[in-house]
Write a structure and sequence with these properties.
mainly beta
């Protein structure tokens, strides 16, 4: 395995060196590079990705700022130029005098009102940007467009960030936290399902500008999570030109045994953007239809596919109301059907449920800048979400050693809504013992959950084919619960000197579920260890409180269960009736987080980062059955805890328009294993054994990740991705489904995947129109990354792995007009 990785890396390096040696441009007359930012948006100095830049003088140049606001103009002849940068509602213009042979760094501040200044460019180095100590990592616009993305969903890009993995359930786990512990935002608006705490929204990837993960966001604006926060930023509309793109118009064939059998996927997308009123109102509309079949390779050919069908619509309006006011409004609709949900080697189609979901979200944000430079942001969002879990058969649900029979045992319906209003004030810099940039805000939210749950009998069969146990449930139940949330917060970015900055903040949260006020102080710092600003020490510590998912307080309303022990002839030997009990009341989960890292700008093109993060979460919820004679309790306790430790080394190297990223993460995710959603979420497990503590199911102690965007000859963009990590843990059970030994002590084989996407831009016979054509290869070396294991010690296949994800080829054609 190691030799294969080394061979691949050498091959990648050889390709890169060959590319540059064959096509390296002549030494430029001058180079201008820098960063585009604005003051008073998400942070004091907020980078602006996707800004349009033009350089006019002796000749004309155009470019666009990257994911971190960076831009570069190469081979610029000496002379006088006008540099213009634009983003929705923001603009900057300055005159630049270019000297022959210079290499210069500029910091371009975008403002509501256009600015004009004169600058003489001289040779300078590119220092490390002073950033917040929040441990933010982002996948920018270029990676969204170029990196291999099998599903072409924005969340599929999150594992490009160190410390983020797609767990064995297919869900995204960020920084060692369960999916329900993380915060999920789209344009800073909450998009989680209030009932489960899991992100529940789909938007077409064509409107995504950046996907960001904040591991330790010390800004008090962020709350209602105990893990990490992901934030998706959408592309601003085009105020001056009409843009149209369409792709995936041809279906992808389904191949079986070297023959084409039907359609595997059909995923057309259409996106349109342009001015409704030039320079005043921009409109964006993106539509996506997705039909896809994914195989479970260990099942018979005619019963191996899951099916998904979705339709996503995203509409956005951007407004330049006045020189001091801008606004954004959006409306998203995202229905989807997932047939044979949870299909695997041991659960055939008949025994799986269908998950049908639908939802919509309305969002409005208004930004106002005062004469003194203060910024007031007002944001309102409303979200409605519905989910139905539907069995595929009415036959009794039966668990055998090698398979499952009958229809799924759970039928549920959820209707949830969430209304939120946020006001945030950010001041212009104030001077007292340094510079202070103050912010304060209020957050009001109301969530509701109306649901129905029905559970049908479950039978467990042993090695002899005889029933061992039967689980019976009470009648179906309906329930309704609301939660009123209120938060207020204040913060101060205190720049003590040009080498030391503190982020100070405190947040107060209250909700009607726990009727408690939670105080969350935070502090972060950035210290320049060297006078040139190229070596930064960052860190901080803070408390973070999560909301209580609305399915938690409904636990006592759910149908109770009775476990019946059966004899060889099906006779009743014993019976235990369990009642649902909330053991210790309800408290908001809390995490205590601290981190420290060192960033070193080794050269102007090479950045190295070494960091350590630790998070300890308490008041987490888990289930634990307890018996006393013929009666028992299924207790829901808030005394659960988990801990996550991470050591990370990351490097980024840029050369001649190409970017190479590599990271190694050593981590541990450990805690209570009987998570509530495991038994009452979208795909509940029928058998509940006593809780234990152990490695969490998505724990991957060692992970190496490398990916690149290589500007190759012939206008090719080559984007390879290598992901290698320790296999996920699993437990062993016996024929009674009781755990044998400590849980999650065994592991799947090592995960190893190499993906590659190659794209070429071609010019069309229309003015300024082009297309992108290429292909993607997933799991290039066809490594058997198994998804299922026979963990029953009484099975003749005990310890065998199944359902590997094989090599796949996808063509790509994007028409852009």
């Amino acid at each position: 395995m190691i030799s294969r990785i080394i061979t691949l890396l050498f091959a990648l390096g050889a390709l890169t060196l060959s590319t540059f040696s064959q096509s390296a441009p002549p030494q430029p007359a001058a180079t201008i590079h820098g960063v585009v930012f604005t003051i008073g948006q998400d942070t004091a100095h907020a980078i602006v990705p996707g800004a349009k830049l033009s350089l006019d003088g002796t000749t004309h140049f155009e470019t666009e700022s990257g994911a971190e606001g960076e831009f570069v103009f190469g081979a610029v002849p000496a002379g006088s130029y006008t540099l213009r940068a634009e983003a929705p509602g923001l603009i900057a213009t300055q005159v630049v005098e270019v000297q022959s042979g210079s290499s210069s760094h500029l910091e371009i501040e975008l403002r509501i009102q256009a600015t004009k200044q004169t600058t003489t460019v001289t040779t300078s180095e590119d220092p490390v940007d002073l950033k917040d100590p929040s441990g933010a990592n982002a996948v920018g616009q270029s990676a969204v467009d170029h990196m291999p993305n099998r599903d072409e969903h924005f969340e599929t890009l999150l594992p490009l960030i160190p410390g983020v993995v797609r767990g064995p359930s297919g869900m995204i786990n960020m920084k060692g936290a369960r999916t329900s512990q993380n915060g999920s935002l789209v344009n800073s608006a909450d998009v989680t399902d209030p009932a489960t705490g899991i992100a529940a929204i789909n938007i077409p990837i064509d409107v995504v500008a950046k996907v960001e993960v904040l591991a330790t966001p010390y800004d008090p604006e962020y709350g209602k999570f105990t893990g990490a926060v992901s934030n998706v930023e959408t592309r601003p509309g085009n105020f001056n030109k009409f843009r149209f793109s369409v792709q995936n118009l041809l279906p992808r064939a389904r191949r079986l045994d070297d023959s084409i059998v039907g359609v595997e996927a059909f995923t057309p997308r259409i996106t349109f953007s342009g001015p409704l009123v030039k320079d005043r109102i921009a409109f964006t509309q993106s539509l996506e239809y997705r039909y896809q079949r994914d195989p479970v390779t260990s099942l018979p050919v005619d019963q191996r596919d899951t099916r998904s069908e979705t339709f996503d619509s995203y509409t956005q309006l951007d407004f330049n109301i006045s020189p001091k006011q801008t606004a954004t409004a959006s409306f998203a609709v995202f229905p989807q059907k997932l047939d044979y949900y949870g299909l695997n080697t041991f659960t055939p189609q008949e025994s799986t449920p269908d998950l049908h979901e639908s939802g919509y979200q309305f969002y409005l944000q208004h930004r106002y800048v005062t004469n003194s430079g203060d910024l007031l942001t007002s944001q309102v969002s409303y979200r409605s979400f519905e989910a139905n879990l539907l069995p595929n058969s009415d036959a009794p649900y039966q668990l055998y050693l090698e398979t499952t029979a009958g229809g799924f045992f759970n039928h549920q319906h959820r209707d949830t809504t969430r209304t939120e209003w946020v006001e945030i004030y950010r001041s212009h810099p104030r001077h007292f013992l340094g510079t202070h940039e103050l912010d304060a805000g209020l957050d009001f939210a109301n969530s509701s959950y109306d649901g129905r749950q029905q559970f049908l009998p479950v039978e467990i069969f042993g090695t002899a084919g005889n029933p061992l146990e039967r689980i019976e449930f009470g009648p179906a139940s309906t329930f309704s619960v609301d939660n009123h949330e209120f938060a207020w917060f204040a913060g101060d970015k205190w720049t003590v000197s040009n080498r030391l900055t503190f982020d100070l903040g405190v947040r107060f949260d209250r909700d009607s579920i726990t009727s408690s006020v939670n105080t969350a102080p935070r502090v972060g710092f950035v210290l320049a260890l060297t006078g040139d600003g190229k070596t930064l020490l960052k860190g901080g510590a803070g408390f973070f409180y999560d909301r209580v998912p609305l399915n938690i307080p409904t636990f006592t309303d759910l149908p109770a269960r009775t476990v019946v022990e059966l004899g060889p002839l099906g006779q009743i030997l014993d019976s235990t009736a369990y009642s649902n009990v909330i053991s210790n009341g309800l408290r908001n989960p809390r995490s205590e987080v601290w981190n420290v890292e060192v960033d070193r700008q080794v050269t102007s093109d090479f950045l190295l980062r070494v960091g350590y993060q630790q998070r300890h979460t308490v008041h987490d919820y888990y289930l634990d059955p307890m018996t006393s004679g013929a009666s028992g309790t299924l207790g829901l306790s808030d005394r659960g805890s988990d801990i996550y430790k991470e050591f990370q080394v990351t490097g980024r190297y840029r050369i001649h328009g190409s970017t190479l990223n590599a990271s190694y993460v050593h981590s541990q995710a450990y805690g209570d294993l009987n998570d509530f959603n495991q038994f009452f979420g979208n795909n509940p497990a029928a058998v509940i054994q006593p809780n234990q503590r152990g490695n969490l199911s998505f724990d991957a102690p060692n992970r190496f990740l490398a990916w690149a965007e290589i500007a190759a000859p012939w206008k090719l963009t080559v984007a390879p991705l290598i992901d290698v990590h320790t296999g996920f843990p699993y437990s062993t059970v016996d024929q009674y489904r009781e755990f044998v030994g400590a849980r999650n002590e065994l592991r799947y084989p090592r995960f190893f995947s190499t993906d590659l996407q190659v794209l070429r831009q071609i010019r069309l016979p229309f003015k300024e129109k082009h297309a992108r054509i290429g292909f993607g290869i997933y799991n290039l070396f066809n490594h058997p990354n198994y998804r299922d294991v026979q963990n029953n010690l009484d099975s003749y296949r005990s310890g065998e792995f199944f359902n590997g994800v094989g090599r796949a080829f996808h063509g790509k054609f994007v028409l852009e007009l």
